[in-house]
Write a structure and sequence with these properties.
- With 750 residues, this protein is an alpha+beta fold.
- The chain is built from twelve helices and 42 strands.
- A six-stranded antiparallel sheet has the order 22-36-37-42-39-40. Strands 24, 27, 29, 32, 33 and 35 form a six-stranded antiparallel sheet that branches.
- The longest helix has 18 residues.
Length: 750
């Protein structure tokens, strides 16, 4: 294109195409359309090879060339499906690494997924710089299948998901975002391992450039790289893995971008190598321009179109996720980020003929309510790390976000954001407990762990997902109308003398932004009961690095007996360290320094300081102040040891009740990940107890007591609920934890 024509095109709001190695100059023609699927079935991908001639520089730029199909269903409804540029490859393992070899020359493809049985009609159209052409109608017939279809927010209950045919869907699985050196061969092992135990969900990343399925790579345009082009080899890899996921019953969330691309410092930055960077031929001078740059918008919409064209016909694509942890992009202007999500959300919905779910995620566990509640985003997510009670983080966020009117689940979770802690946690307590907390608190899906290749695979922890999948099988989540239930726990045989228990403040919110958690808190403790600024934050920010977030905690107490008070320190900042100071009645009585790595350059988090740091507080009125007077942060919990007389056994339980199903999960009181794995606390078995619930419908219920680690019911019985709606469930000795499932029996059936 001449400079004069390019200038004129820009004035018209058009853009000069990127010159690629795929350029063509041929008379415009649709020479043939060949179906590649022998038998077309409902909710399965029907693929066509399109032999066309055209003149173009960039096959990924719809303003340079576009292939589209008008699809008319047996009911006469029509939609538009874009075609895409494609190249096939052979793969091989050489010295433990995946190597792809090009096969045929690039070609054009079209993928369609019939959503009903019967006769379909396709009419293809191609438009290039020389004009446009339309094909004669093409027909194919879709036969019946057992597939459930695409996933959506359930119209029966907008807290949960279901398939096109109304079948309930509850996500259980792990993040498997990229492969190792084996590339797509890694998924030959991972996907059958998850699918084989009944897991049904995973997540794949399409950026930044170092991941297995990266869509954009920095480099020269004449080599097929840089902005405006997509990496055909990685796209082919994704084809293969999506197909294998479908074979193994796994639905996939495709994460289009991660914060790394727009981050220049700390936390795995990738800006210096990002194809969007002007230094690498991209359109952006600085990363914050991404949200408002019109040329970047154009590139992004072209990418959305390509992704829709190539992958939207896969029914097991659960959702498009715009960003992984978008709040880490070093942009403080949330309004422009929200406006971008609205703009791109509208564009994506207009392109996607199958209306896949759309979401985005944040690193801040508290979320961003304004962003999360955008109508362009279908469900909310939480990422949760570094909580001393990993399951408690699920409980807290589900309790908050269940009220947001959308599905919500914890889509990333781990005990430590910096390490899988495999040597300490070889059985995966950090995976197990969050999954079962999710089930018992009504989350829209099980908490989804990280560390797939450095904990789950090497320790063969797949049965943890299988146990939950067996328990959840057959539950109609949208149809149950689940609600949280109050749980009462009593002794079967009260001990003599009476036992005592701690007053604990653990698993509080962890916030990396301005908010309620990051301000001073005052709590009163009187007659063993707490009141005030609750919940207490799960993090203590230091005075120096984030002075605006400095959040000391002050306890005003009246104690009837001398009591030990502990601060439970979890991970500590590896960048700046921290310093704990405990004061009693205004006088410092303990100071503990938690230095970071050498010169404060270790980064991540440090676990070697984890433990309890406490003082003995005399009876009477006192003020205890806990403060971080150091540089950065430490994770924190608080405990008054043996403060109160126990009125029930040392067991905690959470429950949800539905129309015909009740789910309960219980564990020994205080049996958190940190206390088991880090403190090495030995919890004695909880002797037989009674768990009581109210509000059930009268009649007979099947009661199953489950071993949550082995994934099987250890006891099955029938209990009767009278017109009072109350039920008392005898629970045997609990060693680690236990789950209970009640199912309403239809009269005449067992």
């Amino acid at each position: 294109m001449s400079l004069l024509l390019a200038t004129f095109a820009l004035q018209l709001g058009q853009w000069e195409p990127v010159v690629t190695p795929y350029f063509k100059k041929e008379p415009l023609a649709i020479r043939s359309v060949t179906p590649l699927t022998p038998v077309t079935k409902r909710f399965e991908v029907e693929e066509f090879k399109v032999d066309l001639g055209a003149t173009f520089d960039n096959p990924f730029d719809p303003s340079d060339i576009s292939l589209d199909a008008k699809v008319i269903s047996p009911k006469g409804e029509s939609c538009s499906v874009p075609g895409f540029f494609y190249r096939s490859f052979d793969r091989a393992l050489k010295d433990g690494k995946e190597v792809l070899t090009k096969k045929e020359e690039p070609e054009w493809r079209l993928r369609v997924c019939p959503m009903e049985t019967g006769l379909y009609t396709l009419t293809l159209s191609v438009k290039d710089r020389t004009g446009s052409i339309t094909s004669e109608p093409i027909h194919f017939k879709a036969e019946a299948s057992d597939a459930h279809g695409f996933l959506k927010v359930s119209p029966r209950n907008r807290q949960y998901f279901e398939y096109s045919d109304g079948t309930s869907y509850y996500p259980i699985g792990a993040n498997i975002c990229w492969g190792n050196d084996r590339g797509s061969f890694s998924y030959d092992e991972w996907l059958p391992a998850y699918g084989g135990v009944g897991a049904n969900y995973t997540r794949l990343w399409l950026g930044p450039s170092w991941v297995t399925f990266a869509m954009e790579l920095s480099g020269k345009s004449e080599e097929g790289k840089g902005m405006g082009q997509f990496e055909l080899a990685n796209a082919w890899r994704l084809d293969e893995v999506l197909g294998k996921a479908q074979q193994n019953g796994m639905n996939v969330m495709l994460t289009i971008d991660s914060y790394n691309t727009l981050r220049a410092h700390d936390a795995f930055p990738a800006w210096d190598k990002a194809p969007v960077n002007r230094d690498n031929g991209g359109p952006l001078r600085i990363w914050t321009d991404f949200w408002t740059n019109s040329q970047m918008d154009r590139f992004y919409k072209a990418k959305l179109r390509y992704l829709v064209a190539r992958y939207s016909a896969f029914p097991n694509v659960m959702a498009w996720e715009f960003w992984n942890e978008v709040d880490l992009t070093e942009d403080d202007s949330s309004d422009v980020v929200q406006a971008w999500h609205q703009r791109m959300g509208d564009s994506l919905r207009a392109m996607d003929p199958y209306h896949h779910l759309v979401s985005t995620s944040l690193s801040n566990s508290m979320g961003n309510r304004n962003l999360d509640l955008l109508p362009e985003l279908d469900f909310a997510q939480t990422h949760s790390y570094n909580n001393p009670d990993v399951a408690g983080g699920v409980l807290y966020q589900q309790s908050r976000k269940a009220e947001w009117g959308k599905p919500h689940f914890v889509s990333e979770i781990g005990a430590d954001a910096s390490s899988p802690r495999m040597a300490q946690d070889p059985t995966g307590l950090q995976i197990h407990d969050p999954i079962w907390m999710s089930l018992a608190t009504g989350s829209s899906g099980a908490a989804i762990p990280w560390w797939w290749d450095s904990l789950i695979a090497p320790k063969n922890l797949y049965p943890l997902f299988g146990a939950a999948a067996k328990f959840a099988k057959g539950i109609d989540w949208p149809g149950e109308d689940f609600h949280r239930s109050n749980v009462d726990i009593g002794y079967q045989q009260p001990p003599i003398p009476a036992e005592r228990k701690d007053l604990s403040f653990e698993s509080g919110p962890v916030q990396w932004a301005d908010g309620d958690a990051n301000r001073p808190h005052i709590v009163t403790v009187f007659h063993g009961k707490a009141d005030g600024d609750l919940p207490l934050p799960g993090i203590q920010h230091g005075e120096r690095n984030h002075p605006a977030w400095h959040n000391p905690v002050r306890f005003k107490v009246n104690l009837d007996r001398q009591t030990r008070f502990d601060v439970i320190v979890g991970d500590v900042s590896g960048s700046g360290g921290a310093t704990l100071q405990l004061s009693l009645d205004g006088d410092p009585v303990m100071t503990r320094d938690f230095p970071a790595g050498e010169n404060g350059a270790q980064g991540g988090s440090v676990s070697k300081y984890s433990g309890r740091y406490g003082i003995t507080v005399p009876s009477g009125d006192h003020t205890i102040t806990v403060e971080n007077i150091g540089n950065d942060w430490f994770m924190a919990g608080y405990r008054f040891v043996d403060l109160n007389k126990r009125t029930g056994p040392p067991l905690q339980a959470w429950a949800i009740e539905g129309n015909s199903t009740v789910i309960v999960w219980a564990r020994p009181e205080g049996r958190t990940w940190h206390r088991v794995i880090v403190d090495k606390t030995q919890f004695p078995p909880v002797q037989p107890s009674i768990i009581s619930l109210e509000g059930l419908s009268a009649g007979d219920w099947r009661m199953e007591i489950w071993d949550t680690w082995r994934g099987q019911a250890t006891s099955i019985s029938t209990i009767h609920v009278g017109i009072s709606g109350k039920v008392r469930m005898p629970i045997p000795v609990v060693v680690n934890d236990v789950a209970v499932k009640l199912t309403k029996l239809v009269p005449g059936h067992k």
